[in-house]
Structures are given as C-alpha cells and as structure tokens.
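quick one, four chains, predict together pls
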Amino acid sequence: MKPIFTTTLAVRDYELDSQGIVNNANYLHYLELARHDFCEAAGYSFAAMSADGINPVVRRAELDYISSLRMGDRMEISVSMERRGARFVFRQHISRLPDHQPVLDGVITIVCIENGTLSRGDRLAEAFREWLVDK
Amino acid sequence: MKPIFTTTLAVRDYELDSQGIVNNANYLHYLELARHDFCEAAGYSFAAMSADGINPVVRRAELDYISSLRMGDRMEISVSMERRGARFVFRQHISRLPDHQPVLDGVITIVCIENGTLSRGDRLAEAFREWLVDK
Amino acid sequence: MKPIFTTTLAVRDYELDSQGIVNNANYLHYLELARHDFCEAAGYSFAAMSADGINPVVRRAELDYISSLRMGDRMEISVSMERRGARFVFRQHISRLPDHQPVLDGVITIVCIENGTLSRGDRLAEAFREWLVDK
Amino acid sequence: MKPIFTTTLAVRDYELDSQGIVNNANYLHYLELARHDFCEAAGYSFAAMSADGINPVVRRAELDYISSLRMGDRMEISVSMERRGARFVFRQHISRLPDHQPVLDGVITIVCIENGTLSRGDRLAEAFREWLVDK
C-alpha cells in the first residue's frame, strides 16, 4: 500500500534498554508520533480532534520487529490509512536511515470515542476523505 | 490456553496520557514485566540469561485493546508459553481487578539471540521445559 | 527529618538504559509514586484531589544521585512533608534493599493549582495536617 | 551564563500526563537530549565516549519548573558547561517557542566513570576545552 505520509526521527539515548537496542514499547510511540504528525499535516490535529470531542483510541496493534535500532540511528516512518466500517487502519513502516534497512512493520487499528461512546467515525472519515485508501 | 503464571500490578499515574487512560505503549511494558516475573519465578531470570549470553528479543506483538485502564486501577496479568521452532510464543491477558473486566489480549513472539546470531532456542526450551505447552 | 511514610518498589527492566543502570529521569517517577502512595494512605488520593479541582504540580526538584540501581534491585522510598507558605516540601530518600545502601536524596517542592490559579494550599494543608512537620 | 549550544524540540503527545501538561520527569529527558546533541555537535558523541570507556553519569540535578508545556508546544533548550574539579556543571534553560516564555531552569552535574571508577574527567575536559566556561 502506497504511503500517504512519511516523517523522520532520531533515536533518543534514553529509549535504549540494557541490551543497547531500542526497547520494544518505544516503537508504539514512534508510530503514534508519525500518525499524529500526519493528522496535523493533513489539517486536523489531535488537539483539534480533542477540542471537537473526538478521542481516537487504539483498538488493535500488530507489530513485526525486523531489525533493531541502536544509539544514534535515524529512521523514516511511513503512514497509510484505510477505513473499514467504524475502524481506521493505519499501515506503517519504519526503516533505518540512510540505508533504508527495514526495522518494523505495524498495523494499527483506531476507533473513535465521541462523547464517551464508540462512534461510526464519520466525522474523521470526512476530515481525512482525500487520504483514505479506496477499497 | 491455561495460564502458567499470573501477577498483579497497579497503574502508575505517570502512565496515563492526556485522555486520562493508560497510553497504549505502556501495555507492552506490563506484558514484559509479567514475562520477566514469570522467568524469575520459573528459576531462570532475565539477568541470568543475559549472563549466559542469551538475549531474548521481541519478534512480533499482537495486541487487542478491549477496555482502558485508568488512574488507581489494579490489574492481573497472565502468561502462557509455547514453542514453535525457534520461536517462543507468549499468550498474555490483562484484566482489571477486582472485577476481572477484560483489558487486553496479547500474543508476544520471542526469539533468542546468542552471541549475536539467532539461535534455535534450545537452551531456553530446556530451562522452561516443564512450562512449555505441549502441542 | 523523620519519614512519615515508606514504600518499597522493584526496578523494572525497561527502566534501565544502555549503561545497565536506571536512567536518571526514572527516579522522578519513583519519588512521585511514593508521594502518591503516601497521599492515598493518608486518606486523600491524587484522584480525589483531582475530583476536588486541586492540581498539585512540581515547582522545584533537587536530586542527589548517590549510587545507581541495576537490574533486579529493590528499593525503599521514604517521604516526609513540611509546609512553607504556599509550598509543600517533600524530603525523600531512596535506598537499595536489603542492604539500605543510599541511592538518592530528593527534595521536591509542590504547589497547588486550583481552578487554574496558584492557591495558598489551605485545603491540602488541612487534609494533611497531622502529617505536616511542625516548624 | 552565555549558552554555548541551543536546540529545538517538540512536545510529544505521550509525554503529557492526565493533567494535560508534560510530566515532570520528561524534562530530565529533554535536558539530556540537549546535552547529548551538544556533545555530538562539539565532536565527541555519547556513543564515542562509551566506546572510549567513559561513562558520564548524573550526580545532581536541580530543576526549577516555571511554567508547563502542553500539547503541540515547541521548545528551545540551551546548554552551557563549566568544570569544577571532577564535576561538569551544565546550566540549561528551556523556553517555549515562539514566544520564549520561560519553562524550566536546570543545573545538571555530571561525573565520569572510567573503567568502573570515578575519574578526574581530564579526557572529557580536554575534548570540550574550547566550550568550558572560563572561571
């Protein structure tokens, strides 16, 4: 699936664990950062959603760890987005820079809580209409 | 699959995000904690593995977020373990205490790096022989 | 100053950094945890304060790092509390268990934000009256 | 004291706590990041120190929290450096961008562990000679 957004990021030293590699939980942070950056670039930031009473929450995450990032590494994170009913599915890939060695494949499924209950996600789908993969 | 180990844990306030719920990445920490506690209880701690040159690393994680933990919540985390070739598959479940509301299902696949290369995991399988689910 | 509360805690493997010691920022988490545990034990939890519109925030932190905690270590954290005008000063000490080797001395100064502005802290002082060190 | 280095950084959403402000422990991460960036820019990266057997560790931290960073905020972090015997004292300031509202003043004292024991820090002092404040 063709990415609709990419961003770059550097490993922070405190993200390493005692094995000298980035701890597995930090990749969820990296993916979240890229999604939030995408939302902002697409014109509807997380803060704006929050102000509109839309709370996107993670419903499912699948992470394939291919290789490890280490001290001083830089990465590129890509984002694509499709809608499946009330769910928004983000396919994301992390590769190390500058050699583009694959690091992680992630599939993150988001649902929207609006006013405390699960919504159909229509407002989000409308806001991101031009970015949603056509199925 | 029947759990072979359970542990309990309390949410720490700094693990909450601005939505007032535990940030999605922290669940990987909770699952890791429970696996490490299990290894120690089973007689082969993470520190001992490290001293033996065995570095378990996460190869794949599947996380189904069912409900959210909040400030003051306590949880129970269960662990089961099976071997599939060079891979060790941990099925883990988090429920909220005391009502056992389901919070998260996780499947974490681990491989072993020994002396810098992927191993068949025989030493780990031997150490955890009595805990491995019979397939 | 005599501690009014102590709690015990174990280092979590993901809190270590690539030097194999607990990263310096995690000690602020440990100290916060102990203060929150104290507040709850003293009958006025952080969640209850929040519900009452009282938001304690850190105004100043002084941390003396004496020795490092490592994988598998357990610690004891003590708390004492005094009031200085609108400020609540917590003196906290972390020692390694079971040998009580000193790890960290901390002085954390808290102020209260109530309804968006700095308060004199009278409600907090009243709630913790019996625990405040007499000056 | 005149800063010898500045860097800019954006708040990450997962760094916020349930009060909607950056959790106090994250500022130690921000300050560490700026020091490591400075070291790299000055030609002697943390990774290179590590390879040379030099392990800088935090000995003392003083943090004055002046105002809070929130979702979407950007910051500037400055660094200055002086030597006091075996200690390296970094004075650091964080301000919010673009209005330069003061956020935090920090004084971080570092010592060097070389081959497991406290060193006089001569190798570090030599490497950073031109950056050290003249006393």
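The two ends of chain D are 11 Å apart (CA to CA).
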